[in-house]
């Protein structure tokens, strides 16, 4: 077996932080397009910051690939319920249960996350949506975050890296022979 000359002796490449791969304008565009597609043309996200209420709910999907992390949407619980009603339209039950909200909010996170994954270079996989308290930001340098409002209520979209990061594959072998042959 022959190793490619450029792979021999090179140190492993560090995983890129998300700001090197995607910017706030792209995340805002993805979120806005998703909103229009799923919630309706009259339902837009306004790019102005707002303070989240104390009672929040988050929905997220994990992205695993050259960059690994989560795409997290966070808003107030009441806003998540209002969003569920807007998403379901006339099919919305009079009384929403937690599962209705989790399914609808999780679906929006899934679509936003899938589009973020598609915008990041390299092959990646997307996990299933999860809903609950927001996952902790583990590395502030590995976050791309936007703050928007929907119907006057704040919503945060955070693309945040997972730490500790996954190990980088080692291309060097511990074999003492220069060509990598076994004894």
From TrEMBL:
<keyword id="KW-0145">Chemotaxis</keyword>
<protein>
    <submittedName>
        <fullName>Chemotaxis phosphatase CheX</fullName>
    </submittedName>
</protein>
<dbReference type="GO" id="GO:0006935">
    <property type="term" value="P:chemotaxis"/>
</dbReference>
<dbReference type="Pfam" id="PF13690">
    <property type="entry name" value="CheX"/>
</dbReference>
<feature type="domain" description="Chemotaxis phosphatase CheX-like">
    <location>
        <begin position="58"/>
        <end position="131"/>
    </location>
</feature>
<dbReference type="InterPro" id="IPR028051">
    <property type="entry name" value="CheX-like_dom"/>
</dbReference>
<dbReference type="InterPro" id="IPR028976">
    <property type="entry name" value="CheC-like_sf"/>
</dbReference>
